[in-house]
Specification:
Largest sheet: 5 strands, mixed
CATH superfamily of the largest domain: Reverse transcriptase/Diguanylate cyclase domain
Structural class: alpha+beta
Mean pLDDT: 90
Low-confidence stretches: 348-357
CATH architecture of the largest domain: 2-Layer Sandwich
Radius of gyration: 21 Å
Shape: globular
Number of domains: 3
Number of strands: 12
Helix content: 25-40%
CATH class of the largest domain: Alpha Beta
Distance between the termini: 35 Å
């Protein structure tokens, strides 16, 4: 089988860049698109000017304004972002039909066989970036390689407006040199666990057998075993159906204070609400996920009479589900919220499909 040619395209600070494009007075200023601090909001996207202060997506807006007092908050305009995203998608379709959107601002493209018979994935990535710049006055970063995992990491290496190519004969050495905290999907807690085990790079992971990795990291261990060897056979899936929208967080220190639990649930609910509204989705079933310090995991769900997407309903329902568990003396290392039974509000009613969790 010939090597695949995979491109990962990631728009640069997408929401914030659209706002700066549409309002020149915002150019060069630290801005955050998201909910206001007084409304228990979170940052959806921060401009690069704001990122220099440490402002990041999913950060509580209250914290963001503390570390960047000059930060300008902009209410999201999801209809505008969706329109821009549709235009970007149309540019992708000029080259391939094998497109797997991950969100409004990023997607995988399989250009092993491209429509224009250009033959060069790097050349296609350059043309896509040029079209986005000329037609939308925005920039995107691209990663090009032989599989999805490496292409995604590559797209983040030279932001903004970057293009990074990891050739087939360099993939394995690239993965060996990569710090574990740069592995897509390895969060802060997992990275710290790896570091305590003297696992700092892909080369360190490569020294362990698949059995050892599974023992240490569960089923993800099998994936780590393959990916440090440059193996990722996951196809680009153009028709992947969205079954749920969720967010979760693992904590460096176990939560035992109910007020802290409520604060984290509120933040997670805001993230989920933003994602639902981004896609113009609503859902009827809210699921709470709890993992305790002993790694025991439980889920609790409630199905509502009508589909919702608002922050307050999601937060309040998740809190009620939490309070129905025994939180007295509980030590919680992970909380998550998911919304399922999704309805796509952007589709005409006759075309809507109820998606199951």
């Amino acid at each position: 089988m010939s090597q695949r040619k995979i491109i990962h395209i990631d728009m640069d600070a997408f929401y914030a860049s659209v706002e700066q494009r549409d309002n020149p007075e915002l150019k060069g200023k630290p801005i955050a698109v998201g909910g206001l601090p007084e409304n228990r909001g979170v940052v959806a996207t921060a401009s690069y000017e704001a990122r220099t202060f440490g402002v990041r997506s999913a950060m509580p807006s209250k914290r963001a304004i503390q570390i960047c007092p000059e930060l300008i908050f902009i209410a999201p305009r999801f209809d505008v972002y969706k329109s821009v995203s549709d235009h970007v998608r149309e540019i992708f379709y000029r080259y391939t039909d094998l497109i797997e959107p991950l969100s409004l601002d990023e997607a995988y493209l399989d250009v092993t066989e491209d429509k224009q018979q250009i033959g060069s994935a790097i050349g296609i990535a350059r043309q896509i970036k040029t079209a986005i710049r000329e037609e939308l006055q925005l920039t995107a970063s691209a990663g090009v390689s032989i599989n999805k995992f490496v292409a995604k990491i590559a797209s983040d290496m030279n932001k903004p407006d970057g293009l990074t190519f990891i050739p087939p004969d360099k993939v394995e050495s690239f993965m060996e040199s990569l710090p574990v905290n740069k592995f897509y999907g390895v969060g802060k807690v997992t990275a710290e666990k790896m570091n305590t085990l003297n696992l700092f790079t892909g080369a360190d992971l490569k020294k362990l057998s698949e059995v050892e990795l599974i023992r240490l990291f569960g089923k993800q261990g099998s994936f780590y075993f393959k990916i440090v060897r440059g193996v990722d056979d996951r196809p680009v899936e153009p028709n992947r159906e969205t079954k749920s929208i969720s967010a979760e967080d693992t904590f460096l220190n176990d939560l035992s204070n109910p007020a802290e639990m409520k604060e984290h649930l509120d933040r997670l609910a805001a993230i989920v609400a933003d994602r639902l509204q981004e896609y113009e989705f609503k859902g009827r079933t809210i699921t709470l996920k709890i993992r305790y310090s002993d790694f025991k995991t439980l889920t609790r769900s409630q199905t509502l009479p009508a589909a919702i997407s608002d922050h307050e309903t999601i937060a309040d329902t998740a809190l009620q589900l939490l309070l129905k568990t025994d939180i007295q003396d509980a030590k919680i290392r992970l909380l998550g919220i998911g919304v399922s039974n999704i309805v796509d509000e952007s589709e005409p009613p006759a075309n809507r499909q109820l998606r199951l969790f």
